[in-house]
Amino acid sequence: MSNAIKVASRNLDFFYGDFKALENISIDFERNRVTALIGPSGCGKSTYIRCINRMNDLIPGTRVAGELTLDGQDIYAPGLDVVSLRRRIGMVFQKPNPFPKTIFENVAYGLRVNGVRDKAFLENRVEESLKGAALWDEVKDRMHTSAMGLSGGQQQRLCIARALAIEPEVLLMDEPASALDPIATQKIEDLIHELKQNFTIIIVTHSMQQAARVSDRTAFFYMGKLIEVDSTKTMFTNPANKQTEDYITGRFG
Amino acid sequence: MEQRAHFSKKLEDLKVKVLRMAALSETAVHKAIKAFLENDADLAEEVIVGDSLINQMEDDLDNFSLELLALDQPMAVDLRTIIGGQRVTVNLERLGDEAVNLAHRALFLSTRPPLPHNPRMESLAATARTMLSNAFKAYVDEDVSLATQVCRMDDKADDLNIAILRQFVADMVSESRIVERGVHAIIAARHLERIADLATNVAESVVFIVEGTSMKHNCKE
After folding, report:
1. Which residue of A15, A140, B125, B221 has the smallest Cβ count within 10 Å?
2. pLDDT of A33-77, one tens digit each?
3. What was the pLDDT predicted at A2?
4. How many whole angstroms separate alpha carbon A94 and alpha carbon A230?
5. In chain A, what are the domain boundaries?
6. How far is Cα B102 from Cα B80, in angstroms, rounded to an integer?
7. Which residues in chain B are closer than 8 Å to A238, comparing Cβ atoms?
8. pLDDT of residue B1
9. Cα-flanking dihedrals φ and ψ of residue A207, to 5°?
10. Chain A residue set in contact with B, beta carbons under 8 Å
11. Among the residues of chain A, which ranges form H helices?
């Protein structure tokens, strides 16, 4: 069942007030696969991934219609515990956003919030998470210094470690490398290849080359609609849709 | 609005370079065929000397394509245009080589008495020329239908080549003095048949560029 559907949406609409930002989005995300969402600014790709962990709930006047499921369960079911949902669906943002705390506390934060007090358990999980985020070797000797002293690339991997610490099943990444230099970007991309063994990853990126390098499947969004989704190889060598081809060859956008 | 205008211009330049090389290769093939059919040694010499320019253009196109791939990281139809263009280029260079091979046969045969007339040889030469001309037209116009026709003509060239071989073998059995010339003529027919094959390869690249599909080895379906 390694390729079973982890996240799925059916006829999903999303509104900011009266404005329909997403229209009729139907797409499946397979377990242990990386799916890249591409499209010009304002096409709805970030809005879409924020529907998946209900981050958009925090914006007043927004509304969702249609179906969005995690392991077949309705993400928008009445009474669903959103905190527990977000524990299962971690998120990494465009700009690294470490807390002004130590490296250790940054990674331990989610566990502490969830009531974990066992010191040995915390230490073990923090180490595993930092290893998972390919940061451990660089920070193991300064775990109790401020995270703000790390480089941008290290801070972003710290944020990934922080997301991993609570053992999510899905990892949403919203342009995780757009603020990073090429070396740090490469580390994040290598990490994505490693992480997909254990997680389902959905990444929003403006870099076509990055989508091509890291993802198994690519979805092209345009003006709030899903235009085409296919294997990344097909999308970048022979997309079926003319709009997709025009976008990825730089003819518009 | 068209983005990446600079890159689009470079893709156009690529196509123009391929077409210039195609014109040279096609001329070389035409001259070699004429030299062979009309025993024209001077024309054959011209083909042999002219091949270095075709080789030089291949090097130039290789470098240009490599630069486009490395610096512009093309996708989709742009990527196929460059990869397909490289495939065409490789075949153009081989067409130049086949023209030279044919010219060498023409040179040899021009020093000997003429062989018995074999209309199939003219027919094979005409088939190869038509296939080549249509393959280049398909490349210019991105015409998949014409490219497919070229591929389907390849069987005719193969059949003519076999018929020519049989005819010369029969002639050589009955007349041993023509054996040396007959062998050269059989080899020449083989070069003509190879020209038809290379035209087919160009046509297959056109289908790849336009549709992203491969019809290598299966265009008869």
Report:
1. B221
2. 999 999 999 999 999 999 999 999 989 999 999 999 999 999 999
3. 45
4. 25
5. 5-248
6. 32
7. 76, 80, 211-213
8. 38
9. -95, 115
10. 208-209, 212, 236-239, 244-245, 248-253
11. 45-52, 82-88, 103-113, 119-132, 136-139, 152-165, 182-195, 208-214, 232-237, 242-248
Residue B85 distance to chain A (closest CA, Å): 15
Cα–chain center distance at B203: 10
- Answer whether B41's CB lies under 8 Å from B35's CB: yes
Q: Which residue of B has its CA nearest to A248?
A: B75
Query: What's the ipTM?
Result: 0.72
Element (H, E) at A10: strand A5-16
Q: Is the dihedral of CA B139, B144, B146, B151 positive or negative?
A: positive
Only one residue has tokens 């139809």, namely B77
Q: What is the pLDDT of residue A253?
A: 66
Name the DSSP class of A102: B
What is the per-residue pLDDT across B175-215, written as a single tens digit (0 to 9) for each? 899 999 999 999 999 999 999 999 999 999 999 999 998 88
Query: Which DSSP string corresponds to B92-132?
Result: HHHHHHHHHHHHHHHHHHHTSPPPPP-HHHHHHHHHHHHHH
User: Which residue type, as a one-letter code, is found at position B76?
Assistant: A
Q: How far apart are CA B202 and CA B26, in angstroms?
A: 12
- Taking the CA of residue B67 and the nearest CA in chain A, the distance in Å comes to 17
Can you identify the CATH homologous superfamily of domain B5-211? Answer: Phosphate transport system protein phou homolog 2; domain 2 (1.20.58.220)
Query: Domain coordinates of chain B in residue numbers?
Result: 5-211
Min Cα–Cα distance to chain B from A37, Å: 16
**Residue B153: both structure tokens together:** 């003509």
For chain B, list residues with pLDDT below 70.
Answer: 1-4, 217, 219-221
User: Which tokens go with A77?
Assistant: 């079911």
